[in-house]
Amino acid sequence: MREIFEIRDADGAGRIGELTVPRAGVTVETPALLPVINPHLRTVEPATLESAFGAEILITNGYILYKSKEFRERALSEGLAKLYDFSGAIMTDSGSFQLSEYGEITVTNAEILEFQRDIGSHIGTPIDIPTPPGVSHERAESELETTKARLDAAESVDVGEMLVNAPIQGSTYPDLRESAASHAYETSLDVFPVGAVVPLMNGYRYAEMVDVVRAAKRGLGADAPVHLFGAGHPMMFALAVAAGCDLFDSAAYALYARDGRYLTVAGTDHLDDLDYFPCSCPVCAERTPETLRSLPAARREKLLARHNLHVSYRELRTVKQAVREGNLFELLERRARNHPAMVDGYRALLDDSAALERVDPVSKGSFFYLSTDSARRPEVRRHHDRLGRLSVDGDRVLLSAGDDNSRFDETWRLNPPFGPVPPALSDSYPLTIERPERLDRGGYEAAAAGVARLAEANPDTEFTVAHWGWPESAIDRLPDGVDVLSLGADSQHPDE
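Given the sequence above, the corresponding structure tokens read:
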């Protein structure tokens, strides 16, 4: 087990943890946001990030410092902590982004790791090959082999107490991402960034992003801290955390501010289009869009960046609280409805519900059914798996949405989307579900799947389903040997 990362709370694949950074002498609570600091363009000073936003960790580009005439010698003589006036942890990138953008950088893998060590970086990065989406499997595999070789070589570099990232590449090919993660986890390196996903996020390809992350998670152990490179927009924090990511780096707060863009958890607005601020952070509470637009460009940019940071850190705290309370899926479902691409991402995550179920806590707070997607949550899958192992007492069993009936040997409640509920479990999580009266078809269809699991496990038992207004699509999913009894029409639950 890696001793630098400890998990305190979990919900689905999301977790709250503590990442110990020995060289910095600090422990960072995750999920954590790493604001990107460009030494030449400090839109918000690192000291302000720490004092005003509670930042515990940030990221800066080691290659830019390596090439900088203005800051290279200062970084070497003073160290990053003094240069940036920041007492938290500082991660450095290696120039891989510049390599992907310009095709060449003038430094070797060993040289950039040693430079990061010498400037006092707390978490350094080797030079990986960021393979973009859309390339052939052959190219992605070839470039991944180069990345693997560089991770292996990084193990032999004397980095002192500096932690080292082990980037996971492989483009959009799940087999390569899983292979890359398995190889990275077998090294002695420490933190595991999932790289080259910015094009997916910029293109709102959140389903593919989730597939990439989940493939990487399959190759990693539970004690591996996972960094999603370039994930800086607050609208997708809940999705990324639910997929199993622990660290995010954001240049978005500054880049978007430079373009006059205003971040929200629902997306991005342009300052020119706003009549009212939907936020009550200090920037927005003290100004109107009109007064902010009237300021000089440099001042406007700094204030807009501060707002973008406020909304980002607030959303991260919201996500943490959801993990702590066990309602991350409820938060994620609300956030997913902000954009169609987020719905795709949420559904891609639920496609991996079998893996999520293995790490999802068995007891939480309340289960809120919000849409047909709720029927695919890991809690429902876990209950259906349990039904496949349960036996019943008696030859004739009623599965009822209404009252008990003495003509049967035993009566179980019928509780969509879970299906049959043993009497002993009726008051336990998640069967104390809160759901709307106008339940959609997906909830009833999931309940029918639960009936099928129980019937399959007890082939010698006669089951009768007594339902109240189930749609035909759910009735059709019941096994042939199950009798069906309608308790009456219900205008609250239409068939279609």
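The longest helix spans residues 297-325. Try to locate this feature in the token string yourself.
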